[in-house]
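SAMPLE LOG
Freezer: B-3
Tube label: C17
Construct: single chain, 177 aa
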Amino acid sequence: MKPNQRWYRRHQLFNQTLSPVLYDWLFDSSSLTARMINLCDNDFSVRLISQNRQIMDAEEASAMSLANVHSALIRQVLLCRGDCPLVYARTVIPVTTIQGAQRRYANMGSRPLGAMLFADRTMKREAVQVAKLPASHQANSYSTIDAPIWGRRSVFRVASKPILVSEYFLPELFKAL
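STRUCTURE (predicted):
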C-alpha cells in the first residue's frame, strides 16, 4: 500500500514553491521518454523493477474514474542514465484496458511506455496532477540524495481505456541537467 499523498492540479499550487526547472519538468506535455533520451544521449535505459497483477489501489482507481474494476497490471521502472536512476515510474493498467489491441501494453518489459503511448493515435492525455512525496514513499529508496521528490501523474486513454502513469523526478535528475 502506498502512503497517502496529496495530488495538486496546476491551479492549486499557489502555496507551493517550485523552481522554474522543476515546474517545467512537472508540466511538460511532451513524452518524458523522448526528453530523457535527449538528455541521456545514447546512455538511456529503462530498468524494470516489477510488473505483475495486483489489486488496484482505490485512490488510483478513482483517478481513472473506475468503479467496478479492481485488478490491474502494476509496472514499476526506473528511467536511467547509465546506472544512475533519474526517474521512478509506476504505471497502473486496469485488466479491462489490456484486452484486444491494447494487449501490447501488458508485454512492455524494459521498453519505454512513453514511446508506445505517444505513437498510439488513439491516445488522449488528461490533466497532469503533481505531488510532493512523503519520506516513506518508495521512490525515495532509489535516490542517494536527501532532497524532496516531486512527481506527476496523468491518465492516458488509449482507445478510451485508461492507463495511469505516475513519474517521480529523483534529485539526481536535476544534478544531471
